[in-house]
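Q: Sequence in, structure out?
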Amino acid sequence: MGLPDLSFTGFKFEKIKNPVKYSILHREYPPKMTEEMHTIVETLLWYVPNIDSIQSPKNDMALSLDFDEFAFDLVKKNMQLGKEDVAVLDYIPKSVVDFYKNEVDPNFQKIIITKYKDESTTNGLLRHIRNAIAHGYFTLVEGMLIGFDFKTTKYTDEECTAIFKIYPKNLLKSLRILNEEVTEEELAKKALVRCDYVVEDFDDSYDHTEMGFDFYAKKGRRRFAVEVKKYKDVEVLSQKEIDRLVREFSNIYKTIIPVLFINTSLMTDESKEKLQREEIIILDVKNIKKMMRGIDVLKEVVDLGKK
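A: Exactly. Output:
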C-alpha cells in the first residue's frame, strides 16, 4: 500500500536522501544520551504544561482553543517547521507508520498527530510526546527524538495516534516563549486586528510622552494606547505597582484612550477601582478570547462608559 495523499493538510512526505536505520526497542538500558538530552526527555515527561503529571504547570495559551492557531503557529516557527511538516488527522494509516517505523532521515522534522475535538493542537502534541516517552515508544537518532503514541501498550500499527521526529530543544524554547509577556503582546495585537483595529508601534519620538506603551490601536476616530502586563511569581500587585501604572498612563494625550491588558486576578477591587477612576480600560484574558472570536469587547466597554 502506498502513502496516502495528505496535501489537504499541507503535509508533504520527505524524499529520504540519507536514511538511518533504527529500532524503537532500546538496545541499551537506559539508552545513551547526552546530559542535555536527558534533561529534555525528563522535562517532556514530567514538566511541560498541561500534561498528566502532578509536576506539570498550567499554560492557558497552550490549552485554549481560542488561541490554538496563534499558539501552534508560534511553536512551529520556533521549531523551524513549515506547513509541509505537520499533519493533524482523524486517524493515521498503517502505511504512514510503516514509512517512519524502521528508518528516518534526520534532516527532516515531521509531526503527524490526532487530537480530541476539545483539545488544542499544542496540547495534543505535548500529550502524545509525553505518552510516547512514558510508554517507551521513543528513541534517539543523531540527536533527533523519534516517537509513536498508541491507544494501547501493544505495538500494533492500527492503533497509532501520533508520530513525531523532532529536535526537542526548540519545542521547549517555544513553550518558554508562550509564557512570556512579548507573546501576550502579540496575541493582544492579533485579537484587536481580528476586530478590525489598526495596530501601530509606539513611537516616542513622535508622541513625546514620558513613558512608552507597547503599541497603539485605531478604529474609526478612536485611538488607544495599549499596554500589556504579565507578572511572574506575583499573587497580588502591590500598591506601589498600581501607582506606577497610573503614572504611566497619566501622560498620554486626552484624545487617546488608555487600555491595560492584565491578569485581573492579580488585582484587588480597590486597585481596579483606582485604575478605572483614571479612565483606564482594564481587559483580561477572557476579553482577549472574545475578541479572537470577533466580539469587539473594547468598543462595548468604551460605549458603556459614555452612557
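The longest strand covers residues 144-150.
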